[in-house]
């Protein structure tokens, strides 16, 4: 439910920024320094870049350098403003791999199109936080500086549409989602339907009451996925992807359609839920690959596009079946469907619009959220001290855990007042999203006009790629950035990211991921349920498991790096009776 399709594509008191000039680095200010011009009405700040592309302490600056006062350096008055202003350098001078005649960097891009993440990180290490790429006459600028991104996104709202999904839906005559529409098209009206899920008032009246009915089933399914380990009290979490995917599917069905997908109800479906999940995940994977290549599929149906089309046909068929079957609310609790229908009734093709919105939530909810849930479980296992803090927080809010939470029909009940008290758990999720997101890039934009960024004049129609992985690991943007520290997200923490543009897993602006509120609620409830009844571990791995790059979106391979759940005393007997026997 995270912003998948948008992805397709220092300390807080920072005192010195790195500036690259014609491919070389300097530790001292030159007679005619390169100016870092942000999009803030023309304010400027002289800065310097160290040889290692990191912030240097002020005490080590040479006497020739301009000392920058504390507070945000980008909005300070330049003490040297009486000097002649330096004109921005042309696009040809932006750092980046040397393009070949006519085709530009096509070979490098296509060679790494399976997953661009590692390649783009390598470019940041080589060229800094502004990197140019060109394919034929199509320009791309990768920005890995959250200050530059912050100023850019305050002003620039034109985005690239996701061509692969757009092409598919136009051919099928289907309603486009906002991220599939061009900026000059009426994306705003259908976006209003998606925004229903973001409204905070519905978290208390719809999301939490509906999700509280799923906790019992989730825990019992999780326990059925545990396999005993000879000579150990721990149980191996097998088929974890299926269990997590089923929970994610159940969440969307419950919140939007009000139906509780019990085993009895599921057995009456004309398809297997795992099939729906697989079709959806693979469709997204192929769509991202298509988006990173020259769109040959627009001129003839390539084999890769045919595969994408078949996957989307199946995923859409199954999603459409669920929507049609459960049009009538089977729950006593309110659901989001009626609110979306009410908002859509005065729009063109209202029924098709509602169906399109629900399909998008179903398809997005079983892909991205599952990857993040898996990452959360791996972080719990790798950081027992964080796990213990979450457990103690849950006890303070809900009391001691009991077997009834696992055996009762609905399980643990959570209301809004209790939810708001789970602050450390929320910070834990924020830190997982910062360090273990499903991609390194986010928030593609396209410039409406020639724009000065970082001392360079960037031409109109250049596609902007936001590289967040680079910034989130650098101490100048996130103190001790490579460390997993949930407390950094507490208000006033000295370890907080330098601004809100360091980590934006849900995107930003008018097209921010509309499922973000439901997704974070789902993640939090899943974590609380797991930690209240189990202690998670990963066989004491020396380092955190790496992400796998064989798909377009990142994930941790739980087959290669299995998780183990040790039941707490109150559920030991129940787990032993209901888990899988070791083979």
From TrEMBL:
Biased composition (Basic and acidic residues): 75-87
Key words of the record: Heme, Iron, Metal-binding, Monooxygenase, Oxidoreductase
Region Disordered, residue ranges: 40-97
Origin: domain of life: Eukaryota
Biased composition (Low complexity): 43-71
Keyword Protein biosynthesis among UniProt keywords: no
GO molecular function: heme binding; iron ion binding; monooxygenase activity; oxidoreductase activity, acting on paired donors, with incorporation or reduction of molecular oxygen
Binding site for heme: 513
Protein name according to UniProt: Predicted protein
């Amino acid at each position: 439910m995270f912003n998948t399709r948008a992805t397709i594509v220092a300390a807080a008191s920072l005192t010195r920024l790195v500036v690259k000039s014609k491919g070389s680095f300097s530790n001292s200010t030159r007679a005619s320094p390169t100016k870092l011009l942000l999009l803030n009405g023309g304010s400027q700040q002289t800065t310097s870049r160290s040889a290692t592309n990191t912030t240097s302490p002020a005490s080590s600056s040479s006497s020739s350098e301009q000392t920058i006062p504390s507070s945000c350096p980008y909005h300070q008055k330049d003490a040297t403003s009486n000097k002649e202003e330096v004109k921005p350098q042309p696009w040809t001078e932006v750092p980046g791999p040397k393009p070949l005649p006519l085709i530009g960097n096509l070979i490098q891009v296509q060679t790494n199109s399976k997953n661009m993440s590692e390649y783009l990180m390598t470019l940041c290490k080589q060229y800094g936080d502004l990197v140019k790429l060109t394919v034929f006459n199509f320009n791309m600028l990768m920005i890995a500086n959250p200050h530059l991104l912050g100023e850019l996104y305050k002003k620039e709202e034109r985005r690239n549409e996701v061509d692969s999904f757009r092409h598919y839906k136009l051919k099928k005559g289907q309603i486009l989602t906002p991220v599939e529409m061009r900026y000059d098209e009426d994306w705003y009206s259908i976006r209003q339907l998606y925004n229903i899920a973001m409204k905070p008032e519905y978290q208390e009246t719809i999301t939490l009451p509906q999700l509280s009915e799923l906790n019992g089933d989730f825990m019992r399914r999780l326990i059925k996925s545990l396999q005993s380990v000879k000579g150990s009290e721990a149980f191996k979490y097998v088929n974890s992807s299926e269990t997590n995917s089923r929970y994610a599917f159940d969440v969307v069905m419950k919140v939007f359609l009000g139906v509780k997908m019990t085993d009895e109800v599921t057995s009456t479906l004309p398809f297997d839920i795992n099939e729906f999940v697989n079709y959806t995940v693979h469709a997204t994977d192929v769509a991202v690959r298509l988006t990173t290549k020259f769109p040959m599929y627009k001129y003839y149906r390539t084999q890769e596009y045919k595969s994408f089309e078949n996957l989307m046909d199946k995923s859409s068929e199954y999603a459409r079946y669920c929507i049609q079957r459960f049009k009538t609310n089977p729950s006593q609790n309110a659901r989001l469907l009626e609110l979306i229908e009410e908002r859509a009734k005065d729009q063109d093709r209202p029924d098709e619009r509602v169906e399109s919105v629900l399909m998008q939530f179903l398809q997005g909810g079983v892909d991205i959220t599952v990857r993040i849930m898996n990452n959360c479980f791996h972080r719990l296992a790798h950081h027992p001290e964080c796990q213990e803090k979450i457990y103690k927080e849950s006890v303070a809010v809900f009391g001691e855990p009991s077997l009834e939470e696992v055996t009762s029909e609905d399980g643990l009940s959570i209301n809004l007042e209790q939810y708001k008290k789970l602050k450390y758990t929320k910070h834990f999720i924020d830190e997982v999203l910062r360090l273990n997101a499903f991609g390194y890039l986010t928030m593609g934009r396209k410039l409406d006009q020639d724009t000065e960024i970082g001392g360079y004049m960037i031409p109109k129609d250049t596609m902007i790629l936001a590289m967040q992985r680079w910034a989130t690991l650098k101490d100048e943007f996130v103190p001790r950035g490579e460390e997993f520290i949930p407390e950094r997200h507490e208000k006033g923490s000295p370890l907080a990211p330098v601004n809100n543009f360091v980590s934006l897993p849900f995107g930003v602006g008018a097209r921010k991921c509309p499922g973000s509120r439901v997704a974070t609620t789902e993640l939090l409830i899943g974590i609380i349920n797991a930690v209240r009844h189990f202690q998670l571990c990963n066989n004491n791995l020396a380092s955190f498991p790496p992400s796998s790059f064989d798909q377009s979106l990142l994930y941790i391979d739980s087959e290669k790096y299995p998780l183990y759940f040790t039941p707490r005393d109150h559920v030991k007997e129940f787990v032993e009776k209901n888990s899988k026997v070791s083979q």
